[in-house]
Amino acid sequence: MIIGRVPVCALAALMTAATLSAQQLRHYVFFNRDRERIAEPSFLETPAFEGAQLKYTWRELEPRRGEYDFSGIEKDLLFLESHGKKLFIQLQDVSFDTAVNTLPRYLMTDTSYHGGAVHQFEIREDGTVDRFGWTARRWDPAVQRRMHALYDTLGAMFDGRIEGINLPETAVEFGDDGEAFPSGFSFDGYRDAVIVNMRALKRAFPKSLALIYANFMPGEKHLPAGRSYLKDLYDAARTWRFGLGGPDLFPYKPGQMNNGYKFLRMGRDSIPCALAVQWGNFDYVNPKTGRRVTIEEMIAFAGTELGVDYIFWGTQEPYYSTAVIPYVAKLR
After folding, report:
1. Domain 2-93+143-329 - what CATH class?
2. Cα-atom radius of gyration of the chain, to the nearest Å?
3. For the chain, what are the domain ranges?
4. Which uninterrupted H or E stretch holds 105?
5. Cα angle at 289 between 288 and 293, to 5 degrees?
6. 183 in helix, strand or coil?
7. 234 contacts 260 by C-beta, under 8 angstroms
8. Tell me: the pLDDT tens digits for 72-116?
9. Pairing with 73, which of 37, 85, 120, 176 sits 20 to 30 Å away (CA)?
């Protein structure tokens, strides 16, 4: 018997895989910067939600050079602990809105940091430039020193107390020909800088899980066959058991399958892995079924196909309330 495009036997296998994967996975809710939502009963009263992934910007954590304010993290952590939940921090040094800059102001005004952050942009076919956000100069040694100081200060206070901390996605966009690259940027140099930053975060958090969203890397298409900047990141991560993952859960989407997912699958037995279900993911059409993806399909793909350890569930409605919470609530 066939239902839609999927045989009933395949659906049964999918449900079995989803059930087993769901029980093995660690489920967190990604509340983004809506951190007050950790008090919602639907979250607190669902035992299978181990905790919350919350976003904190570099700007709010270091409002002035060398002066740190971790009071927000401390407050959220203590509240979660009082309800038997854990905290996973997303440390934000990038935005996707030109009106939002997550970097401390001193980085932007002190010439020692060469601007501190740069616009990301895409060059269209007609030659016009579409700017879509800011990213820290992650490759700039002066900026890195401040970044690593933040890691060390956070680690001294929270390592071992939080479940983990993740850096945002490695994907950045500055065009392909090099003519419009920010000062000091190169594809090889960016790869090296990301690895340096990963190592610094791991040193600061030897007990809690240190993780980065390694989804895409600039310049991959220019490399000869057999070479990959993403593979370099995964090889480094395997050495230190550094966590890797991505900001989107799109079962069987070609772009992801040929990039981050490929290496998640390869590292499934040696690297802690996580995927975040973010805005728009619930609307995705699964190419295997031709239909909007289901929670069961997401879980089976993440757990069985990729070997993911954590899922960070986004709160897009109506899916969060009508699909995610009821499904996860049945797991314990």
Report:
1. alpha beta
2. 20
3. 2-93+143-329
4. helix 105-109
5. 95
6. coil
7. no
8. 999 999 999 999 999 999 999 999 888 889 999 999 999 999 999
9. 120
